[in-house]
Here is the input.
Amino acid sequence: MTDIFKKGFNYLMGYPVFFVPPLIPAIVSLLASFIFITSATAAIHSGKGLMLAFIMLILGVTITLVVQLVTSAMLIHMAQVVEEGYAPSLKDSLQASMDRLGDIVVASLIVSVAVGIGLLLLVLPGLVLAFLFIFTLQEVVVGNKSAVDAIRGSFEMVKGNFGNTLGFFIMLIIIILIIAGVLGLVPVMGDFVANLVITPYYSIVTTIYYLKQVKTSQPRSSIIVEG
Here is the structure.
C-alpha cells in the first residue's frame, strides 16, 4: 500500500501540471469576492438595497463550487491518464470533466446532502457515509457512470474492501496532516502552498487506489481510459 503514496509524490513532482487545477478555484473565488464587494458598494450608493449584492454572492458561491468540482474531476482524470502511462493534459482533462459535468454535480449534491444530514443527526453516520461515498467522483469520471450508479459503485467498492480502504485513508490522513503541518510553517503563504500540494496529492493517490481496486476486482467493461 505504501507504493501508492510514493507514486502520488512521484506523479506530483514529475508532472507540475497537477498544480494548475487547484489554482483555478482560488482565482475564481477571488474574482467572485471582488464582484460581490463591488456590487454591494454600488447597491448601497444607489439606494437599491443589498438584494443585487446578495444575488451576486449566491451566484459567486455557486460558480466557485462548480469550478471546484470540475477541477477535482480534472485531477482524477489526469491521475488516471498518468497511471495508464500517458502524460496528463489540462485540455483533455477539462474536456473529460465538462462531458460529465451533469453527473458530477448531481452526484456531489446527493452525497453532500446525505452526509450533511448524517452529520446533523449524530455526526458519526455522516462520517461513515462520507467514507462509503469517497470514490463517487472516480466512478463518474473514470468509471463513466451516472450519478446514482457512481454513488452505488463507491458504496459497494468500500464495503467490499472495508478494512484495507479504512487503513489506506487513515494513512492518507496522517500524511496530509504532516504535509499541512510542515508547509503551514511557510510564512504568509503557508496555508495556500499546503492546499496547492494536498489537493492534487489527495486526488492522485485516491485515484491510484481506486484503479488498483478495479483491477483486482471483477472486470468492469464500463471503465474507459482517455489518453
